[in-house]
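Lay summary

Proteins are chains of building blocks that fold into shapes. Our project writes down both the chain and a compact code for its shape. Here are two examples, one after the other.
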Amino acid sequence: MNKKVAIIIERTNIDLGGAERSIFELKNQLCAQGIDVSILAAEGEKTSEHIKILCQNNKCQRTKYNTFAKALKNHLKTNSYDIIHSVIPFDFVDIYQPRGGSYAESIQQNAVSYQNNFITACKKLTSLLNCRRTAMLNAERRLCKKNNGPIVAALSRYVADQFKKHYKLPLNRIAIISNGVKINKEFDREESEKLRAIILHKLNLKEADNPALLLFAANNFRLKGLNPLLIALQKTQKTKTQRLPYLVIVGNGKPKKYQTLAKKLGIQNRIIFLGAIKNIQNALAITDIAVLPTFYDPASRFILEALAAGKPVITTKLNGATDMFKQDVHGKVVDCPQNTDSLAEAIIYFSNTANIEKTTNAIINDNLKQNISIERVATELISLYETIIEKRRQQ
């Protein structure tokens, strides 16, 4: 008999971001490996019989934490599952898998990303005024303090360290199951070639110029380090490189202040904002390096998808995706976004065709693609499910 697993998420709309998309990719892969998965959500559309919407949709505001908790408990009274797996901090579940890392760390690093001591202090002080975030933070704290509470399935060592640091969660309550992505996503050759033509035209370049195209993809430009990235790009101008580096920026972030900064730095002709694009694979196919000098990322899908596409990466130690590749072999890891000198050095290193090719070959030869696959994530989760079920039988 197949194991029945309930995965709890807040909303079912995958257009909302990487966390929602990851859960549905995971659900499909668990089903492919013989698990009977139901999605329990507060809001969204019921697009299949495996999706259960437990609260009334309210377009004006999101469902409150306590409202969703009550609806879940009522559902669980009449529906039985072998494993209850949640991405929201409920202490009555078997596994808590925080897609955004711990709330304590995310609040702290979001404040740091403003790069202004006064604003950082204010953001930390006022963070608790956000009622929803405070409810989640308190729920996470209760979950960690509860004896025999849920196992925390951490997306990376960075996330595991957060729970040890902020909540003193013991090691026997933490399982590291590194993040993964679908590794065989296709790109549209015709669309990607059109995209490259647009990029080169707007940058006033020709193919013969042989630029080194850096791809930055994010919706929160501040948190993901676009400001220090622009400063680092300006610093690369002090060094003569084999190929000139240019920055392609993708995402829903607001570009105005960054365009102003680029102009102030004298690099406005070295960057291009594309806005949101439907298929990140098309952009990865026609650029050379993925760069994300983030202030906070539990395990970036963008960096993992870049590695799956065989692209060298540049990121920071504040990105849990660094678990999945070797520094100086598959990419460059900078200690923090503010270290713009090291960030510039990483860009300069990859402004060389031989270095790009060497790194790409290492990514392929070391089979990183399989290591970061969603199939591997599902297999490790099923093993954790079995461990929890067996432990329950022995009690």
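And here is the second example, written the same way.
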Amino acid sequence: MGNSLTGQKLFGGGYFWGRPNVANPTPVRFGTVQSVSVDFKREIKYLYGSDGQAAQDVAAGKLTVSGKVESGSLNGRAVNSLLLGGTLSAGETVFVRNEAGDIPASTAYTVEVEGSDDFVADLGVVLTTAGANLRLTRVATGPTAGQYSVDEDTGIYTYPAAYASGTVLTDYVKTDDSVGQSIDMTNQPMGKIGGFTATVGMVYGDEKSLFQFNNTIGGGFSLATKLDDYTMPSMDYGCAVDDNGTLGTLSFAQVS
């Protein structure tokens, strides 16, 4: 233990867990935590009279407990269980970028993309024949120069005869049931959703402190990419008392 007269020191990003308030919950641990904030904000109420400028009394108003956790990794279960309350399922919906394709020399000027069996949506085509870099315009059927069409049920692209023996780069969306997971987002009702117990862990050497809040909901999720740096997803949260009127527990390593 350190010197209790100076209080406990803290260092690093800390740790954050969210345990859904349901039967047999699967806890979520945020990975590569960058920072965790816990904010206690109390309204101060002042009583003034006609006897002077200073308040004659002061009392406590509403107490708001909230915070934010920022991590260096993206966790689908955390986003769903602690915020969205959607349906989490196995399999990923992925984008394919710049898939090369060769247009046949004659007859049917079509290209079937590699992910045709799991095709979801077209994201555009660039013609690259002879060094060209021409983004084509999609039409329903019968494409002419500068155009293409696609059957999104089969993942087959059709080009005009003018592009016979040409090359294209195709962007599209497909599913892959062998990896990842997905969240089906629906319009959830207002009110109580995604309640969880938030546990914040902080350390300095061998000393550990823990803040736990029994009735927490996710308030918002933010994700902003950067050209030359890691993406740091963050989630805001807010706390209230549980059914027993308990806000939670603050536990410190040192005796003060």
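What can we say about the second shape? The first strand starts at residue 15 and ends at 20.
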